[in-house]
Description:
Homodimer. The protein is of the alpha/beta class.
Amino acid sequence: MACQTIRSAARLRPSVLGKIIPDSLTSSRISSSRFVRKELFPSSFYSQVRMTSSSSSDIQNKFALDNKYQGLENNVWVEFIDLNAKLQPLNLGQGFPDFMPAESVVRELAKTCDIEANPLLHQYTRGYGHPRLVKALANLYGNLINRGINPMTEVLVTGGAYGSLFCAIMSNVGPGDEVIIIEPYFDCYEPLVRLAGGTPRFISLKPENPTDASSASWALNMEELRSLFNVKTKAIIVNTPNNPLGKVFTRQELTDIGDLCKEFNVIVISDEVYEWLVYEDNVHTRIASLDGMWDRTITIGSAGKTFSLTGWKLGWSYGPAHLMRNLHIAHQNCVYACPTPLQEALGAQLEKEIKRLNTPDSFFYKMVTDLKERRDLMVRSVRDSGMIPVVPEGGYFMMVNWKPLENKADLSEETDAQADYRFVKWFAKTHKLLGIPPSAFYSNDHKHLAEDYLRLCFYKKTETLQKADEILKHLKNS
């Protein structure tokens, strides 16, 4: 670097450290390296050059990833979205439909963005949630849990359900606190708890009857759960219907969890984003509605899952004012406000849906009826292939046991530690169908529990599911 600087100084004849290079020196004496070193560039120049060089080499060390993010570098979505872009397989990995959402909600957004509409709908709105939307949410959930909900103090609109999870965990969990996480869990739970300074404690749902094909057979050992509660326990995160399993927690299971929370003075962060997607005679119970649970429950919902609008990235949470105040403070010091036009359109759509609840005209009714047909189509395809589905009671994902076809998979070139990662990558590369490895939804010590499975999304066009059926048949016959 020093030599480059000297050559540049000689070529451009500038003022170098206060010295002007005379014309008479630029063609003759400047060629003498001894003259350049002693006359034009004093020792202080070289010290500065060395300091600059040293500083450049230290930048990466000084600005390395901060300690709080160390260990959180890997992300299943980043990895498999990149793999999808590279391989262009049939994508049954990510959880979104490959067709248009409800026409009515799209039209509401078009109305909001019309040139004749209120211009203020394109500007900042209330930070904790656009008035029309929070009022609709308070009305909706107030009716569902049979209590009044204050839209201004007991509701928060966030950047997706992820935003509500972030605010709930960051504002209520700190160093020394423990948070119980039920496996399998959506993969952000653990890193958020660790970022907040808390310690995650894990307990796994396990099939009580391995031959039972339903997610209903997966249950908690309540004695094991009790053993995790102690004076340090701050919260438990419950996801019902569960992603990726599709389990719908029964009223009794939630009552047992709630009783432990009341006994040990623990809050519940209830992730209920798939609340409308419940099949057969299963019933979604909102834990906040159970006796004595409102005051200690934060419930989280999602426009992406409710109206198939994952790209809108709108979520919400509701609960008692003393807990929601914590979330409000976290939110105002992070995102602060969410997009106004999207909130206005969503609020207008919810107002319509509230009037249609429990009728055949309800979008929620139509959606779950449609999804059940798609689920059953995938169940048949998986079974015909020789693999074993865990038939979900809710949600739009299916855990599939791939071990019966293990002898057809050459995983020797895949290097991941977990077998499900190796199988999913081999399957995408060899047969052009992409799923998600569910060990991503388990803690390090429990990842082995998911290695025999892959997760598939069935919220896709019928043509997409038919293509998947063809791929599965080809796998069986290969």
